[in-house]
Amino acid sequence: MVFRTIATSAALLVSLAVVGAVAGPQWNPVPVADHLQPATSDTAIRGVDAGRAAEIGSVGEHEVRETVLTVPLDGTEVDALLRQPLDDRGDPLPGTPGVVFVHGAGTGRFAEAFTDIASALASAGVTTLVPDKRLDTYSTRERDYVAMAADYARSVDVLRAVEGVDPARVGVYGESEGTWIVPVMQAEDPRVAFTILVSAPVVPPREQAAFAVDNYLRNTGVPEQVFRAIPRAVGMQLPGGGFDYVDFDVRPWLERQTAPVLVVYGTADPSMPVEQGARRIIADTAVRGDDAPVTVRYYAGANHGIKVSDETADGVRVQRLHPDFADDVATWVQGLPGTATAPPRIAGDTPNQLYLAGPVPQPRWWGNGDIVLGAVAAGAGLIVLGPLVWAAHALVRRAVMRRSAAPAPRLAPGLRRALLVLGAGSAATTVALVVYLLTVARLALDYQRDDLVVQGGWVGVRLLGVVTAVAGAVVVLRVIDARAARRAARAPAIASVVAAGGDVPDAVARRAAFGVARGWPAHLTFWCVVVGAVILLLMLAYWGVYQLGI
């Protein structure tokens, strides 16, 4: 029996591994072969025209006045915070350039977003406007970047009319998700004087998400088998529909740029394709031959928001803007057009992007998230349904049918325990996998490593899966043995009765018919648990629990 169990378990594990390998796409990102080499580590912006040099302010040079404005939109309105640099008399500094800020992902309230950089630029002599993000048309499922660009364009119009602002020198600053919006704004309104793209994904959101997940997982130190889940999760149609924006391509809008572009990345940002993004922006803005010069800066140790971690005097770690970032942006904006083409085009810290962001393979059979969730719910429901019906039947039988001579439902010898382990094990492994992935996601987003959790947790999930598969093998063997015993017991009993010229007694017929299960509750429980467990095992195989290097 031991040898049969080992052999059957091995065959089942190999089958699950094969199913998991062929049921969905693999993950094989392409390494970056040609790395960018900044001309210098100095990020300073040069090329300020001699005639404008006296106008270039530095961070902290001016007092700043803050005013809350209302920006009318189509069908609604949003508040916006205006920061104006003041002259020595306390009046708005005349002839200043202006910058409208476009939010990244999230709620985007002006009270919380861009507070450091918008204040710093204003103190250097640049009028800034940070509007609230419009949220009535923005949700996790539904986003329209072209429509959002039209909404933010209203803020540009408002800033152009502000006292002291030179309307011909108003540009747009976008961060992260906002950098999919900013090129649309400039393409639709060539009067936008410049654009600043900070931590720009450039690639479509789905590709950026897969790239970010890959980097986060590598930083967390997860086992190689976990990476197979990336295309299967990011590439599928997400549950509930929507999410059309995940395939938005900003490159046609980049090709229509006519204004100078400042591209900024932090080299400690694992979520962005920092080299690939800069290359694409440079290439795409040059497609039509229009004058859209690009300046690229990389800031050492800076994260997604171009912030670095500092330790205060009392030992508390805080996030602050990179010390050179605000001054560089202020100089570039105030020094245009001379700063737009000043060498070096690419400067700062040396980036090190390991893999290219690229198209995400699409799952075939499990490409619909609703089907995936439905299958898990169906599998878990069946595992619970069968035993629940049997238990209810037993209660009714005990209360109402005490005098019944009908035999009680039962399973074949040895099958009950194996079936229990199969059902409970498949459910427990599914729960353990979900908990493991959520824990790894939390560690990854917090930039933390915990080998005991990451490595040990994966081993634990896979061991649970192996135990469940062994239980499945035992169930198969018990079913084979029960059916063989039924055939062996029934044939001689019936033959002896027939040879004696008599009828087959009911008791003999019932005993001969009892194989895997006796009674409909037992049959229902058996098939519910088996079918439910098979569904969950196939799902676990799909998500990589049973990988054997196949």
From TrEMBL:
The cross-references to InterPro entries, in alphabetical order and at most eight, read:
AB_hydrolase_Est10, AB_hydrolase_fold, Peptidase_S9_cat
**Keywords recorded for this protein, A-Z:** Hydrolase, Membrane, Signal, Transmembrane, Transmembrane helix
The residues that cross the membrane are: 371-396, 417-439, 459-480, 524-545
| GO MF terms, alphabetically ordered | carboxylic ester hydrolase activity; serine-type peptidase activity
Q: Does the keyword Membrane apply?
A: yes
Which PANTHER family does the annotation name? ESTERASE ESTD (PTHR43265:SF1)
Tell me what this protein is called.
Dienelactone hydrolase
Organism whose genome encodes this protein? Isoptericola variabilis (strain 225)
